[in-house]
Every structure is written in C-alpha cells, then in structure tokens.
C-alpha cells in the first residue's frame, strides 16, 4: 500500500498577494511525498510525463517508474539503462524514453505490464550520449531525441533513425511549443520542419533556454535558467527582456493554465505568471529540501515534482479543499475559528492565536493573556468573544478582556431578547447582555448545576441541553432569566448508542442518535417522536456519527474517516462524501471535532496545528466520477500469483480457480468501488483497496459490472467486463463426446455378451 505523507502538512502554496476579504488566498493545497523506497527506484527523478487515465511516468537512474493512480511499478531495460527523459505519445499510446547511450519506447502488453523496445544503441567506441529531451508533434510520424552531441529523428512508419545536421554546434534543449518543435544551438534558436532547421533568432548569446511558450498575444516567450525571459517579435528580434522577481536558478519548468511551474536548484519551487511575478513558493523552510529536477502535470491537473531525493505531488486538482497551517507547528489542536476582515482567530488547546491576513509571511501569534483551552469563538459586535476554560473573554484591538471568571463551553443568543446571550458553563448557565457595544455578565441562572457543552433554543423559548447520561433536557426560564422554573428529561429508543445530537434548522429542532434515529418534539403529548421527513432527508448520512451540524440548508456529518456534506436543493439532496479524508490523520480528538463556518461558502475543520478549509462552491462544479479501468488481472494462488490476458477487454479464466484479483485505476479519491456479477444475481459489493477480488467462480460466461462510488449513493457510469470461466476437463464438450462414445461401446459389448 502507498503511504501518504503530508510533510507535516506543509504550509506551501501561500499567495504572496493576499486579500483581506477571503481566507482562500492564505491557504495551501494538500501535498503527498513519496520516498524512493515507496516508488522502488532511485532518488533522482529527471523527467515526468503524464500518460493515459491517471498514469504518470518518471525517468530515474534505475529505469522507468509508473504510477497508475493507485500503485507504483518500476521497469528496467535489459541493459539497465540510466534514464534521463520520458515522453508519453497519446496518439499511439506508447511512452518513449531516453537514457545514457540508448533510447526506445514502452508499451503495455496484454497482461498490463510495460514492455520495452530499444530503438537506438550508441556504439561502444563512440562518445557517451545522454538523451535528455524527447519531442513529438501531434499528428507527426517523427519523434526527436536530443543529446548535447546529436539530435536523432525516429520515423515511426519506416523505423529509420536519421541524425539531424548539427553544424558542429552542441544542442542545448528541445521544446514543443503549440504544434512546432524548437531546438537551441549556441546563440541560435531553430524551428524544426521535418528534417530541416529554420533559424528563428541568433540573439541568444549566454542565454540558455530551459523552457519556451507562447505569450497571450502569440509571441514566443523564452525562459532562461537565471537571466529572466525574452519576448521575440515576428522577425525573431528581442522585443522585451523581463527579469525574474527573485533570485532563482531554474532547472525545470511546465505550465498549468496561464501560470508557469518552476523548479529550481537553489530555492525550491515557484508558481509565476508570464511577467515573472512570483504567485507562490515552497522552499526549504517549508519542507522542500531537495533540488527540483523535473516538473509535470497529470491528466487531473495535479502537480508532480521530481526531486533530487524523492517525488512530491501537489493536489492542485482538489479545487474545494486546502490547508491553513502553522509553519512552526506550535499552535496545538485547533477547536474553533473566527474570520474577521483583516484577521483570522483560531482557538486551540494552547490559547487564542491571531493571523494577520495582509502579512507577506503568514504566521500565527498568541494573543497575550490567552493561554489555556479555547472551546469556541464568536463574532459579536466589534469584538471576538472567547469561550475559554478560565472563563468568558473578548478581544478588541489586541486587548484580551475578561467578561466572567468561570469555565465556559458555549454561548447562544436568546431569541426573544436581542442583545442577550446564555452561556453553557462547566457548572451551569449564565446570562449576558450587550452594553455600550460590549458583552457584559448579568447573572448566573439557578436551578441547573451540571456541565453544559451543547444547548439550543427552540421556537418557544425553551433551552434544550444534550446530556451524556440523561439524553435530552428541556429547560424553561423565568421572565428575568435568573432561574429555571421547569425542567424535563426526554429519551429516545436506543440499543447500543449513548450519543445524542441536536441541530436547529430554521424553526425546527431535530434530535438524533448515531443509530439512525431522527426525532422532533411533539407538544401535544410532550414526547420526542420519530420524524419521517428529516429521517428520509438524512437517511444517506445518518450513520456512525461523531457529530452532526446544520447551517441553513447544509448538513455536515463528521465520522471516523472524514466529513460528509448534505445540501438540500428543492426536492433534491446533493451528497458529497469523503471530504477532508486526506487530512484525517491530523484530525483533533474525535470528541471535539466540528465544522466551522468561516464565510458563507467557506467552512473548516480543526486539525493539529491548523485548519482544513472547504470551499463548497467548488463542489458544485465537480466533474462526475470516472468509470474504473482494469489495469491488471491475476489468479491468486497458494504459492504464487499469475497474470491473465486482458486482450479485447475480456477475461478468460481457467477452471478450478478459487480467486481472481482485478487491479483498478481511474478511481475516485476514496478509491471506493462497487462490483457484481450480473448473472449470479449478486448484490453490489464494496471494495476500497484499489482492487476487487472474485471468488466462488463456476464455469460459464458472466458479465462483471464495476463502478466507482462515494459510499453514499453517488456512482460513476458502469464498466462491463465479460468473464469466461472454463469448464474442468471432465465437463468439456470433448469429454461429453467421449462419455457418449464410451456408453455406446459399453452397450455394444453388453449386447454381444448377452447373445
């Protein structure tokens, strides 16, 4: 299994140009780091190319490494060639590779393994050649392989390899720009038309290219290692020279949309615009300690970095999720947060921390006098109100003010009295009111002297409390909110669960447990009764709950593995499951996990030393799940496994096979799939390991159906595979013919004997 590392949740991808009105601009994308022991090859990764489906190819000193979106595989040539470059040809579905003194191509065989065909081997007596670049224009039959000493052209149709005239000058770099191929030799830049070179410019003295692209107006843009970028006019003259904003030595580049992805040998990884302005950076202080040798982008839009000591992947394709983390990893467990116009406050088990969103260097600073456990935060008036283990406090202009000295868990507004609030404390309830724009303590409320962590007002002004031992309690106050005049305990049917939840949706107060029960208060008979409407609405997510919350028409469920969002849209219910799942190893203790609303469509969950951020507007535009694809099929045996042929997309399985394992790719992020054999009348079975296993196989022809799922009723289109399971030798047609002939002979012999 692949181990996923977040590099202590790297605080990378932070925007340099921060905007105070959006927390989105101070977040980072989830990161995965793969060590050489995980991808089973050398630490240095020289080249990256995207393949089919989720495939990504890497060139290392030990060969070619393939990642199919689930698993890593290493492939080595017969000569054990050191690889320098790899390029996937989408049209012909082959991966070309170039290395030391040879190049060739890789193609899947019928068993799902890559097979190598060598195209060129350098003469042992000739100078060493290292093929660092490969280029092929879509629709062309020619593939270019470049080394500093030569440029060789391979004709795919004839198989002929022709050296391009080099004029005695060394080749530097080879590029594809649009649908044209360019090469640099000394001060000259040429465009290649078949086997001919056409000079574009002769003005590249001491300007060695690492990348080329087309500017937005169609002009050629040239990137050097250290000397900035050049814009060429239509005559090949230098029209503009743009210096890099920062001192960097570029080793590799790629592009993503209109931005450029820059790997360097001295200062990490950058994302820049076409003017050279740095949009974001990750460097050594943020965990990237290796030279970036190569940069690539897969079919989903994720960014891959080939390092001098491993492989890093930035999940750029995950548009809805991001991270906001403390670079020093010192703020502790984050329980709550409040987003102000210029500041973001987070409450942790170590105190209250503030981050100025306009700072160039994002950092969390402890608010003076706030050390301790912060349970919740509220934006009331001009203040941030802090529910703290030492009492209730407020923050205004950096000043930490005590409102009441006694541990407070929660604070809720009193519906019938604007400006009044009731707090749930360690030992009961208290009343507060706004005076002169500040929240002030008014009185303790007598009649209840137990801990209150969760309380909600109903439409009639009753306060409901969830109690770990008693279930639900309803409290009614006197007119002055000085004492409780009525209290009553309510329970709901339960067998194993003791967890009680309640959420308020509009004027409705809903009561639940984590066994699937959904209830509402019935005033006529003074009981909690099952509610069919909300039970149906929540049926897809109401299971194994650690917490459930409601914000307007959005329900959030937190479970062991992640977060599920249910949004009601007229008569439809949209379910997004597995949210924050990649961050689950950094979740805070489960008894205190909750979803935090920062802005209207931006939510967060507390992590160790930071926040997971979710922009739900990005969820609405997500593409549907892809159909799974079978990567390999193998017979699972007692001593060894054996691969099956995947020719024509069907599977022929020998007789007497007890188990077949199908390795899948093109999966969703949870890698959850469902499968069934139609003719057996099977129910859909689940698998989340990146594969499925078929067992109890009997002879015959069957249809296997596979689909991706999020586990909450949302599925991809179904892939179908025809299975032919052979009959044992004694049940074949020939065996039956033999049995028939044998029977005839026996009858004949018996008839002879009887006469």
In words, what does this structure look like?
The protein has 755 residues and is mainly beta. It is built from four helices and 65 strands. The chain has a five-stranded mixed β-sheet with strand order 59-65-64-61-62, with no helix packed on it. A hairpin with a 6-residue loop joins strand 10 and strand 11. The longest helix is centred in the C-terminal third of the chain and has 22 residues.
Shape: flat
Order of strands, widest sheet: 59-65-64-61-62
DSSP summary: helix tally: 4
* Percent of sequence in beta strands: over 45%
Q: How is the biggest beta sheet arranged? A: 5 strands, mixed
Low-confidence stretches: 1-21
User: In terms of structural class, how would the helical and strand content be classed?
Assistant: mainly beta
Mean pLDDT: 87
**Intertermini distance:** 73 Å
Strand count: 65
Question: What fraction, in percent, of the residue positions are helical?
Answer: under 10%
Radius of gyration: 33 Å
Main attributes?
about 750 residues, single chain, four-stranded antiparallel sheet, mainly beta, 4 helices, five-stranded mixed sheet, disordered N terminus
Could you give a quick summary of the protein structure above?
It is built from 4 helices and 65 strands.
Reconstruct the topology from this structure.
Elements: E1 31-34, H1 36-39, E2 45-50, E3 56-60, E4 63-67, E5 72-75, E6 83-89, E7 94-99, E8 102-108, E9 114-121, E10 133-135, E11 142-146, E12 151-155, E13 161-163, E14 171-177, E15 180-185, E16 188-193, E17 196-201, E18 209-214, E19 220-224, E20 229-232, E21 238-242, E22 250-256, E23 259-264, E24 269-272, E25 278-282, E26 292-297, E27 303-307, E28 310-314, E29 321-325, E30 334-339, E31 343-348, E32 351-356, E33 365-366, E34 374-380, E35 383-388, E36 391-396, E37 399-404, E38 408-413, E39 420-425, E40 429-435, E41 438-445, E42 455-457, E43 463-467, E44 471-477, E45 484-490, E46 500-505, E47 508-513, E48 518-522, E49 527-530, H2 532-537, E50 547-551, E51 554-558, E52 563-569, E53 572-579, E54 595-597, E55 602-607, E56 610-615, H3 617-620, E57 629-635, E58 642-643, E59 651-653, E60 659-665, E61 673-677, E62 685-687, E63 691-695, E64 700-708, E65 719-725, H4 733-754
Parallel strand pairs: 59-65
Antiparallel strand pairs: 1-28, 2-3, 3-4, 4-5, 6-7, 7-8, 8-9, 10-11, 11-12, 12-13, 14-15, 15-16, 16-17, 18-19, 19-20, 20-21, 22-23, 23-24, 24-25, 26-27, 27-28, 29-56, 30-31, 31-32, 32-33, 34-35, 35-36, 36-37, 38-39, 39-40, 40-41, 42-43, 43-44, 44-45, 46-47, 47-48, 48-49, 50-51, 51-52, 52-53, ...
